[in-house]
Structures
1.
Amino acid sequence: MPRKIINKFSVSYMQILDENGKVDKKLEPDIPEKELLHLYRSMTAAREFDNRMLKLQRQGRIGTFGPSVGQEAAHCTPVLLMDKDDWFVGAFRESGGRFMRGETMEQTLHFYNGYEEGNKKPDSNTLPISIVVGSQMLHAVGIGYTLNYKGIKDRAVVTFFGDGATSEGDFSEAMNFASVWNTPVVFICQNNHWAISLPRHKQTKSKTIAQKAIAYDIPGIQVDGNDILAMYVAVKEAMDRAKSGGGPTLIEAVTYRLIMHTTADDPTKYRTKEEVAPWLEKDPLIRTKLYLINKGIWDEKKDKAMMDSIFKEIDETVVSFESTVPFRQDKVFDHVFGDPHYTFKEQHQEFLTELEKEKNDGEA
C-alpha cells in the first residue's frame, strides 16, 4: 500500500502596521478613535511605570519585578476587545493590560513589595499574577470548562504566557484539554525570544510557536506582536470564535523584551547590543504613535500633555504608596497554613523576637 498524505498544514503570519508606519489598508480594522487613544495611553503608562519601578527597585524601595518594556502591544491590545465578564488569566508581564482591567499602579507597588494587598483585584474577572511559569494556562482551561459546564455563553478566557512556557508540560496539557473540551480560551504567547537567558532556538526546534496548535487541531496564527492592528484583528477573530462555541485559538505574538527578564537579571550576559538594536526600531509605542499621527488624531502637543498626565499620575501613586501606614512586618505568616503547625508558630515567634531585637538595637 502506498503512503497517503492525510493532511497538509500551514501557518499564517499577519502584519498590518509595519515599523515604518506603512498600513495594509485591506486588512486595517476599524477601531474607534476613543479606543485607539485609550490603548496608546495605556501602553505608554505601562512603559513609564516600568521605568519608574526600575528606579524604585534599584533604590531598594520595592522588590524584584518583571518589566514589560517592548511587549505592551501584545498584552494591551487584547484587553481592548475584552468585556468585563471575560476572564483575564495572566503571568507577570502584562501590567498595562491589568491597568486597563481596573487594577491600580498602587496595587502593583504593594504586590512587588510583598504585601498581600497587592493581590486585591478590581470588580472584574481578573486572576492574580502567576509567577509559576505556565501554570496559569491550566487555570484558564479550567475556567473555560466551567463556562461550558454551566452553559454560560458569550464569554471568553484570555491567557498570556511567554515562549519559555510552551516548553512546560502545563502548556501541552492545557492545549490538549482546551481542544478536547472545546473551551472558549484564547492562548496568547508573547514570544519575546528569550526564556530568561535561554534563547528560543534552544528550547524548541519548531520554526514557529503557532504551529504547535496543529497537533491539537485548533486554529493557530503567528502575528507581529508589536503591531496593534494585527493583534486587534487576530484577537477579535479568536474572541468571536470562542464566544460563538468555536473553541480555543493559539496566537503567537512575536515581540521582544527590550530590557531585563526581571530586575534580578543582567541581559548583557547572554545577548548582544547588535541583537537588540533592530527591535528598538520596532518599538510598539513608536509605531503606534506614528500611526495615530498619520491618521490625523494625534500630534506632539497632545503627546506632551499625555506624558505630563502620566508622570503626574505615577508621582502621586508613589507618594501615596510610601505614605501608607506601615504594614505589619509579620503579616506574611497569616495565611500560610489554615491550621498552623507548632514549628511554624515557633518560627513566627522567632521572627517577632528578631524584630524586637532590631528595634531595641536601633534605639540604643
2.
Amino acid sequence: MKIPKIVFVCVGVLSLAVCAVAQQSGNYPAQPVKVVVPYPAGSTVDLIGRVVAEKLSQIWGQPVNVENRPGPGTVPGANEVAKSKPDGYTLLSFGIAYVFEPLVLTNLPYDSEKDLVAVAPYARQPFALAASPSLGVKSVADLVALAKAKPGLKFGSLGSTTPVYFVAEQFKKQTQIDMAHVSYKSTIDANEATAKGEVAFWFSPVAVALAGAKEGKVTPLAVTADKRSAMLPQVPTMAEAGVKNMEKAAWFGMWAPAGTPAGIIEKIAKDISSVLESPEVREKLSKMGAEPMSMTPSQFAAFVRGETEANRLFLNELGVKPQPYVAPKKE
C-alpha cells in the first residue's frame, strides 16, 4: 500500500489546535522585525529593549530593528503599533507607562485593552530618590525637614503623566511636604537639573542614580523596593528611611497588535524567556539595576490587568483627574 506524502497529521480537537499554532509560528520570523520604542534613544526603556532585541536577532537569524518613536509623550509610538498589521513583524517595547496612559489621558487614538496584546515582560527596576548635592542632605529625613523649612523647593520628573511623577506625588503626600513640579524631556535632562540644583530631587531609575552618584551629580537617599538594590547597597529602602508603602518599580515588556496569531505570540514569548536565561543578558540587565522578569503571555496579560487596577486606585488616592489627550500637530 502506497503511503501519501504528508507534512504532518493532526488527530483530535486538541491536536488540531496544537497544529494550528505550529503552522502560525513555523517559519516566523521570515523577514526583519521592527520593535517600536515610544521613548528617546538612551532611555531606560530603550536600553533594556535593545538588549532583548539584540539577542532575539541572534536566535531568529533575522534583524530585529529597534526604532525610537518619542512623543510628545509615548502615545504616537504605541498608536503606530496598535494600528500595524497583526503579523508579528511590528512589535511594541514599552514599560509601566503602558498602564498609566489610559488612566491619565482620555481620547487616546488607541485602546490598550482592545488594540494591543501582551506578549512577555523583560525585567523590573526600582526607582531611587536622587537629591541635589547642593542641598547638603544625607537622608530622606533631612530632605523632608528642608522641604518643610523652605517651601520654594521643586522636584523633577519626566512629565505629569509618567510613573516617576506619581511616585514623587505619593512621596509628597506621605511626608506632607508641598513642592512644585518641573517636567523634563529625558532622564539625562532630569539628572542634570538635579545636579545643578534646579530641582531638589527626582525619582530616578536606579542605574541612572548610580551613574549620577559616581559623577557627584546626585545623592541617592533611598530606593523604592522591598529590599536594597545590589547597585546601591549602602542606600536604604524607603521603608528603612521611614516612609512606608513606597514599594514601586518600573517594569518593561513587549506587546503586539491585537489579532496577531497566537502561535507567533507564543513563539516570541518563549524566545524572550530564553533570552532572559542568557548569562550575558542577565549581566547587562544587572548593570542597569534591573532583574529578569519572565512570564507566559497569559500570565503577563493578567499581571498588566492587575497593575492597571492597582494604579487606578493609587491615582484615585492622589486625586489625579484624567486629562484629554492632545495629538501633536502635523508639520
3.
Amino acid sequence: MDRDNGLKGVGADYYRDLLRRIFEGRKVILATDVMQGAAGNVPALRDAGAQRPFLLAGNIGTGPLPTTDEAEQFSLELPPEPDLMSGIRRFETVLRDLPPDALAALDAYDPDREALVLGSFFTLDGVVAGRRVYGGRTQAWEALEDKTAIDDVLAKADIALAPSEVVFIAAAREAAKRVDLGDGTAWAGDARGGWWGGAAYFRWVRSADDAAEAEAFIGAACDRVRVMPFLEGIPCSIHGCVMGKDVIALRPCEMITLRKVGRDELLYAGAATYWDPPDADREAMREAARRVASTLRDLFDYRGFFTLDGVLTAAGFRPTEVNPRPGAGMAPMAASSDVNLMVLNKVMVEREPVDFRLPELERLVVEASDAKRGGRCFAIFGGKPTEQTVRIAKVADGFRRAADGEDADGAIALGPSVIGGFARYEPDASRLEPGGSLAPTAVEVFAFTDTEFGTRLGPLEAALEVR
C-alpha cells in the first residue's frame, strides 16, 4: 500500500511509476567506490522494471549486499587510500581505464553496450567502458563544489553571510586576523586537486601552531583558501531542487560534524533528521534554499537536487557552501518517503519529459521525513577490523554491549573501508526523541568503539546548540 502520509495528491507510487517509464527493461550499471553504498538503489531499479543491475565498485565495504540473483557484482579491490576523497578520486580514475577482467565482466553483462551507468559524482558527458553515464552533472555544476568560489552565488541569492576572504594560502593568517570573531577561524581550501567534501581540506585555526599545520596541509593540495570566522552552532544542510520554473526545499538535516579535542581537524560523521531547529529558522533556511535554487537555475541552467550547507548560529543560519548534488541527508528522507530520490535526481538531470510535480514531491517528502526520523553516524579509522555487528545499550556515562534478549538503543557495524576500518552506528529511531542533535550520541558511540574495538578516533566533542 502506498504511503501518502495523508496528503492530497501524489504519493510514492507516482514516483515509482515515473521511474518505471524510464528504466523498464533497461540494463543499469551502478558504479561507486564502495559497493555497499549503491546497494540501496537495487530495489528501486527492480521496482522500476529494470533488468538485474550490475554493481561495479572499488571495494565491497561494510554492510549487507544484494544477492547475486538480485544484482551482478564486481569489485576492483583497489588498495587502501589515505583518506575518503582519495578513494573516490582513485575509483573514478580507474573507471577511465578499467582492467581487462572488469571489462570482460561488463561485456558479458552488456555485450551491446547499451546499459546506463549511474554513479554518485560523474559529469554529464562521462563514459564508462563505452557506456553512457546517465544523470551526471556538467563541468560548470561540478565547479560549484569549490569552497572558494561560492560566495558570488550566495550573494546573488541575497542570503545573509558571515564575513569571509578568499586569499592565497600565504596570506591566510592576515585574513584570519581581520575576520576572527573570537572563536578562531575556519579555513577551507580550493579545488585545485579536484572537488572535495567531508571536511577533507578544512581546518579550525585558533593558534599559531594551528595556522602552521593548516598552511602545510591545505597548501600541499590547494592554492587558495576561504577564511571565515569559525561558526559556533549546529552544522546543518537543506536540500533544494529546481526543475524549470519549479523550485522546492526539503527539511533541514543535521550534519554530524565532531570536533577532535586538541586538534584543528573536524570529523564528518554522517547526517540525520532527528534534530529540529526553531520553526522560524527552519522556514528561513528553506526559503534560502529556494532562493539558491532559482539562482543556480538562472546562472547555470541547473536542474535537480543540491545542498545548501551551513551552521545555525546564535545570529541565525549562515551558509558555508553549496554542493551541486544530493547530500548524505537525502538518504533518511528517501527512506521515510519511500521515494528513491537519488535515482529520481538522475532523471531530473537528464531532463526527461515527465511531470515531476515538484510541489507535491516537496509536501510528500517533508511531511514523511518529519513524521519518521532517521540517519546514522560513521567513522573511518586505521586497521582491518573483523566484520561484525554489535548491539549496544545506553547507560549514564555512554554505551555498553546489550545483553542477549535486552532491548538495544542501536547497533554498530564494523568492517573494512577504502582506507582501513569502518564503524557505522544505526540508532533505533523508536528510542530517540525527535528534536535533539544526534552529535552527542555519536561522541559517546565513538568513545565506546575506541575502548571496545581500538578505533583510535580519540576524544571528540559535539557542536553546541546556541539558538
4.
Amino acid sequence: MADSAPIFPRYIRVEDSSNVGEARRLAAGLCRSLGFDETRSAQAALIATELASNIVKHAAGGGDLILRAFEIGGATGIDILALDRGPGMLNVGVSLRDGHSTAGSAGTGLGAIRRLSAAFDLSSAPGQGCAVFSRLWQDKPPAPAAAGHVALNVAAVCLPVTGEQACGDAWAMRAGGRAEEATSFMLADGLGHGPDAACAANLAVAIFAKNALRSPGEILHLIHEGLHGSRGAAVAVAQVSGAAVAPRIVRYAGVGNICGLILCGAASHHLASYNGTAGLEVHKIEEFVYPWPQGGTLVLHSDGVATHWALQDYPGLAQKHPALIAGVLFRDFQRPRDDSTVLVAKESAGNAAAAAAAP
C-alpha cells in the first residue's frame, strides 16, 4: 500500500499588486521548507507570481491562491491552485498561446506555467471565472501504477474559516499499490471550529492511519471510540475497490453532515450517513455498498460547502483534474463562517499529467 499524506495548505487572498510579491515569497518559502532545490523553488515562485498577476489583471473582485504540499509514494510535490470569479476566457486554447493577451502584457504567463509544470490544467468559461492548476515535484514523481492498475487521481481543498489558523476539518487517504487493493479515504469535520475542532479532526486522521486496511464501518467505529473526550466530529470513510476487483464497488460509512457523492456523466448517487457526532453520540454505524462506475468520480465535502451544486452547470469541468473540481466547488459554494473541505478522487489511467498538459 502507498500512503498519501496531506500537509497543511497555504492560502493567500489576491486583490492587488502587493499580494503578487507575497504569493512569490509564500511559494518559495514553502518549497525551501520541503527541501526543494533552488531551481524548483524558483519555478514554483514564478508560477505563483504569474497566477497571482493574472488574478490582479483580469479579476476585478480578486481571487484566491492555494498552495498544498503533499507526499505520495515517497515523492514530495506541491500543488498551486488559482481561483477567481472574473470574466472567464472566451477561448482557452487561444489564451494558452504565447503572445496572446487581453491585458496589454507579453502574453507568456499561462504558457510559461504550463511548460514549468509537471501537471497543468485549466477550467474557464465566459461568466464563470477561471481556475488554474499546476503541480511540481521536488525530484522525481512517484513510480507509475503497476500494469493493469487504474489509479485514482486525488486532490482536495481544506481551509479554515477566515480568521482561524487551525482548521477543524481534516482528511486522509491510503492508496492501494496493487490492482486488487482498495483505496481508502476519510474526511472529518470537528464540531465547531478552531483548535479544539482541529484536535478532534486530527485525532480522527491518526486513528484512520493506523486502521486504513479495515473496512469503513470498522474504521468509523474505532474513530467514534477514540474521539471520546474530544469535541467530536462528523466523519465519513469511503473505500474504492481496486481495478482487479469485479464488479468494482465503493464501501461507505458516515455519521454527521459530511456529503458524499459518486458522479458519472450526468448521473449522481448520494452516499448515506447517519445522524450523530463521532466521539459524542452515534445511534448507528452501518456500512453501505455502492457500484463504482467506469470513469467514476468520488466527491466528499464538509458542511462548510453548500450542497446545491451540479457539475453539469460547469461545461467540461467533470473531465478536468480533481484539483480544479475541488477548487471550483470551494470557490462557488464555500460557506464563509465555517471550515471548508472538498475532496475529489477520479480514475486516472496513469497518463493524466500528460493529458492535462497537452494543448
